[in-house]
Design a protein that fits this description.
The chain is of the alpha/beta class. Helix content is about 40%, strand content about 20%. Bound molecules: NADP nicotinamide-adenine-dinucleotide phosphate and magnesium ion (MG).
Length: about 450
């Protein structure tokens, strides 16, 4: 247990304004592993002022030099990958191998992609008798969740810095340690003072103060739809731009021509990965009625294999919430074929990998985001029915389509109301725009589209 001090503001660790701390708990064994200061509106104000003060110079820094700093950041992230993975495992509970392969590795790829984009992006273009300049939007407030704690920070910080913006980050209260480690990597990478600032604290206190701060030009938020709506309302009052990455209830559509076993196995792995705490997880599996029973059996077998390997969910509240959804599924008449509401271990916030069959589209477990290792398998009659079910939620973040050939899957995918679709198990691409249709969000992250979120245009006529 270690008491961490200070906020990273203006290029140094500075004492927090108040005395309150947040306890950081390892969800695998429920031990308190550290404390961090609980930031106040005063800390937020100091951080925003530091970001504002650093803005003119950073915005005027040639893109090639910004690119060089981002490349240095990528290199420090690479050098410290083991430490990052261990930290995420300690505060989020994810198995170390997953922390290495995803939580530590993806931010390296994303930082690297923005080092390249900063160097190559056309910050100036011509149209007719105009020259259009893409200028940084200003001071960014980034409010991030705990489920991919470093990725979600880097997916905002890297494009913001590439664009020439400065930033204040308020990480999730459950995962502040990797955020602090990131502040150290930024420092080591030689970013100028004030370009990046970190304030740890509680959402309704530090997060709220940051979203409300008049010195912030753009609020980039990842988290729940409820908090996203609240932040968008605050921003609307001040005519601030917002980018929102919110919840999801994505469909994994298995068309009759697909390789059923592969589609089901990859689908189960997708849901169980990160203990089901992935906003883009394919939590609804849609199977043709003729293949339904076989798919259910395959999924139950696949889920049972995850029993030993899966990590805990992030905290006791989340564990209770997920188990509440499992109870609700049973109460509404879905059939449990793997897992269930009983905690598989006495210590740690573990939830059994759970699969429900006979789920109908109107059930709570088919509509609401559970954010735990829970898969619902739904039956469809024909393709039109599958499409209605797939599109039948308020969300539209991601999804998957499986078919005998890619062209058939693409035709279906184009009709889905969602921001990202994996075709026959397509791989993660750090350059592909990520973001939601409908209530899954506003704006896009990653790649060139993610960079554009942090820019505003000025046109000069000749
Ligand atoms: P959350 O409660 O919405 O929290 C997200 C962030 O907002 C945290 O830093 C939180 O601080 C802060 N916050 C809470 N209340 C606030 C307020 N009134 N003003 C300003 N900030 C506030 O979400 P979560 O429970 O941490 O994360 C799970 C949710 O995030 C799921 O719904 C999931 O789908 C969604 N998510 C979406 C994406 C995406 O890209 N679309 C990615 C990951 C997660 P505290 O930590 O102190 O609560
Ligand atoms: Mg929260």
């Amino acid at each position: 247990m270690k008491a961490y001090d200070g906020m990273y503001i203006g290029g140094a660790w500075r004492p927090a304004a108040g005395q309150d701390v947040i306890e950081v708990v390892n969800p695998a064994d429920e031990q308190v592993i550290g404390t961090v200061p609980a930031g106040t509106a005063e800390d937020v104000d100091t951080a925003v002022r530091a970001a504002r003060a650093a803005l003119p110079d950073w915005a005027a820094t040639p893109p090639a030099e910004r690119a060089a700093r981002l490349a240095a950041l990528r290199d420090v992230l690479t050098a410290r990958a083991d430490e990052i993975a261990e930290t995420v495992t300690a505060e989020l509970g994810s198995p170390l191998k997953f922390s290495q392969a995803v939580h530590a590795a993806v931010p390296i790829a994303v930082a690297g992609s923005y080092a390249e984009l900063a160097a190559t992006y056309a910050f100036e273009e011509k149209t007719g008798n105009s020259v259009v300049h893409h200028e940084p939007i200003g001071v960014v407030a980034a409010i991030t969740p705990w489920n991919y704690p470093l990725h979600q920070i880097v997916a905002k910080v890297a494009p913001a810095l590439a664009a020439g913006c400065t930033i204040v980050v308020k990480p999730a209260e459950d995962t502040p340690l990797v955020a602090r480690l990131f502040a150290d990597t930024v420092h080591e990478a030689g970013l100028p003072a004030g370009v990046f600032n970190l304030v740890t604290g509680l959402g309704p206190v530090a997060g709220q103060a940051l979203a409300e701060h008049p010195g912030v030009d753009l609020v980039s938020f990842t988290g729940s739809t409820a908090v996203g709506r609240h932040i968008a309302a605050i921003a609307a009052g001040q005519v601030k731009k917002v980018a929102l990455e919110l919840g999801g209830k994505s469909a994994n559509v298995i068309l009759p021509t697909a390789d059923l076993a592969k589609a089901v196995n990859v689908g189960v792995a997708n849901v169980m990965s990160n203990s089901g705490q992935t906003c883009s997880a394919w939590t609804r599996m849609l199977v043709h009625r003729d293949q339904y029973d076989e798919a259910v059996e395959l999924a139950a077998t696949a889920a049972a294999k995850y029993g030993e390997r899966i990590g805990p969910v992030v905290n006791a509240k989340q564990q209770a919430r997920v188990r509440g959804y499992i109870d609700k599924g049973v109460a509404e008449g879905a059939r449990l074929v793997a897992g269930g509401p009983e905690a598989p271990r006495e210590t740690g916030y573990f939830v059994s990998p759970t699969v429900f069959a006979d789920v109908t589209p109107d059930m709570t477990i088919a509509q609401e985001e559970i954010f735990g290792p829970v898969l619902s398998i739904l039956k469809y009659e024909d393709e039109e029915d599958a499409l209605r079910i797939a599109n039948g939620t308020v969300y539209g973040l991601a999804g998957a389509v499986w078919a005998g050939d890619e062209a058939e899957a693409v035709v279906f995918a184009r009709r889905m109301e969602t921001g990202q679709v994996d075709i026959n198990g397509g791989r993660f691409n750090p350059l592909a725009p990520f973001g939601g249709y409908k209530q899954s969000g506003v704006g896009r992250e990653l790649g060139v589209h993610g960079l554009a979120e942090y820019l505003q245009t000025k046109s000069l006529q000749f």
